[in-house]
Amino acid sequence: MLDAKVSEFLQRKGIELNHKQVLVGVSGGPDSLALLHYLWRKRPFYQLSLVAVHVDHMFRGEESFDEAIFVQKFCEERDIPFEMTRVNVPNYIAESGKSAQIASRECRYQFYEEMMAKYQADYLALGHHGDDQIETILMRLTRGSAGEARAGIAWMRPFNDGQIIRPFLTLSRKDIETYCVKHELNPRRDPSNDKEIYSRNRFRKNVIPFLKSENPLVHEHFQRFSEEIQTDEAFLQELTIAKMNKVMDKKAPGEIIIKINDFQAMPIPLQRRGIQLILNYLYNEKPTSLSAIHIENVIALMSNPHPSGTLHFPNGLNVVRSYEKCHFLFRLQQVQSYRFEMSKPGKIELPNGSCIMMEFTNLQEGSTHADTLLLNSEDILLPLVIRTREDGDRMTLKGMQGTKKVKDLFIDKKIPLHERNIWPIVTDGNGQILWVPGLKKFHYSIRQHSDSSFIRLSYIRQ
Ligand SMILES: Nc1ncnc2c1ncn2[C@@H]1O[C@H](COP(=O)(O)OP(=O)(O)OP(=O)(O)O)[C@@H](O)[C@H]1O
């Protein structure tokens, strides 16, 4: 019964066991012990090479070592090569501050990797089954996971130079228990499996029995659901990657900028996955608090009629929208206010990498260029001041009664918020704003005499 289900599953998922070198992660519990036993029985049929791999996490002192000895003996009796390591996970937890589950997992995978390389293995087989699948999917949906994560546990995924495979995903916990009884395996029971402090155990105890009472084969439906989501996701991911490469303006470590118009032209399912892709790229370790809601919030930020806004995500990631651009970055650009005075020819380098150059000249050149300001020397009280914007900044403009707020000028020109704060503003010695370089000049007309001398200011952009 179990054999038929597993071989049908392996065939359906294209997992080829013939002549393969297979490592089996064995804890000593029912699932992995049954898996090892199953593969050992199939060894002649598939011409498999098997190695059992065990990690003693040293959680329960000598008791955990007993488990290692138990697995070792099990392997010796069946002539299965056995590899084990002892890792002081409690010490590692104290040093790293990681949770027991994450710390144990890291240590296990580290050893798996070493063993995959040592044996040049094709597969690492793990004992996850269909009830684990139900628990995982429900836990992730409950937590608010997005995209591929909702598919739960993968039946196969790349690992080192080989693949991780989970041949028992098609089985229920009960199938495995029955198998253990039938073959008199007497596996070890991990007492932490009963502790209600773990979310998984609460799902196992409170939710699974109800679902099983509704349909004893519920695990098969969840497994099929998982497989469909995985293949759908893989397909959509490919489409998303192709589209996202076209909407990204900049991609640098810790930073991404996208063009909102182009992004919004993508279908919504690809938009969601596009944001997910960005978050995966930016976060080395995804915070558990990050959920599908964060993705929805980014999409809402971009379609909001208000052209600017910022979202603060876990671990200091900021999503800053400014007009047609959406910027994902870990640190907001520091607002560095500055103030420089100029009374003689020279060049001032600004913190944003741009320069302002001042020259005295007799030539009336460049008066119409937006990046140049030409003034009659005798009109201007020095020193000129080059500074960042201040509250209430206003300037007089040609063809306009009264004054205009500098802030509105930035808005008219759609200058992103973070650039406004470091944009230079040039005033005369009285504090009158003469020029917002590159954007606007104050209301002024040059006069030309035979002996005119001018001040020419040039804005040299970064
Ligand atoms: N200490 C370990 N050493 C090697 N492999 C392990 C170890 N613990 C778990 N694994 C592998 O990871 C799989 C999933 O582990 P998990 O802790 O989720 O399940 P489990 O309840 O320990 O399963 P099992 O009934 O096999 O003990 C196991 O089936 C096994 O293949």
UniProtKB/TrEMBL annotation:
It comes from the Bacteria. It catalyses: cytidine(34) in tRNA(Ile2) + L-lysine + ATP = lysidine(34) in tRNA(Ile2) + AMP + diphosphate + H(+). Its EC number is 6.3.4.19. The keyword Isomerase does not apply. It is found in: Cytoplasm. SUPFAM superfamilies: Adenine nucleotide alpha hydrolases-like, MesJ substrate recognition domain-like, PheT/TilS domain. Its main location: cytoplasm. ATP binds at residues 27-32. It is an enzyme of class 6 (ligase). GO terms for molecular function: tRNA(Ile)-lysidine synthase activity. The keyword Acyltransferase does not apply. Keywords: ATP-binding, Cytoplasm, Ligase, Nucleotide-binding, tRNA processing. Residues 384-457 form the Lysidine-tRNA(Ile) synthetase C-terminal domain. The N-terminal region contains the highly conserved SGGXDS motif, predicted to be a P-loop motif involved in ATP binding. Belongs to the tRNA(Ile)-lysidine synthase family. HAMAP family: tRNA_Ile_lys_synt. Ligates lysine onto the cytidine present at position 34 of the AUA codon-specific tRNA(Ile) that contains the anticodon CAU, in an ATP-dependent manner. Cytidine is converted to lysidine, thus changing the amino acid specificity of the tRNA from methionine to isoleucine. This is tRNA(Ile)-lysidine synthase. The lineage of its organism: Bacteria, Bacillati, Bacillota, Bacilli, Bacillales.
